[in-house]
């Protein structure tokens, strides 16, 4: 049986999600960590995050994400929307793959 990390290594956004899980666990407030917080409920439901996580929660992850993107420069609005689409794509692909590996 594959490890959980291996289940999404080839999925769209898998690298970003793995990075976000690690960042969140280590208390880093990054773009990737914000994405995990935005979808915390689904990540808990899918078993990628424990329900009672010792990592501190990020407040207002959507606003924090947008502020981080603005600080990086460029078109924060487009990047924000692109990252949310990548997150949704990962979640859908992960759920489909999870069903196939049962």
Key descriptive features of the protein:
102 residues, globular, 66% helix, 6 helices, 0% strand, mainly alpha
Descriptive overview:
With about 100 residues, this protein is mainly alpha-helical. It has one domain (about 5-100). Helices cover about 65% and strands about 0% of the residues. It contains six helices and no strands. It has helices spanning about 5, 15-25, 30-40, 40-45, 60-70, 75-100. It is globular.
Q: Short description, anyone?
A:
The protein is mainly alpha-helical and 102 residues long. Helices cover 66% and strands 0% of the residues.
What pattern of helices and strands is seen along the backbone?
A: HHHHHH
Tally of distinct domains: 1
How many strands, what sense, and barrel or not for the largest sheet? Answer: none
Tell me which oligomeric state these chains represent: single chain
Low-confidence stretches: none
Annotation field: number of helices: 6
**What is the structural class?**
mainly alpha
How helical, in percent, are the residues?
55-70%
Write down how many β-strands occur, each being a DSSP E stretch of 2 or more residues.
0
Integer-rounded radius of gyration: 14 Å
Mean pLDDT across all residues, rounded?
Answer: 88
- Distance separating the two termini: 10 Å
Strand content: under 5%
Overall body shape? globular
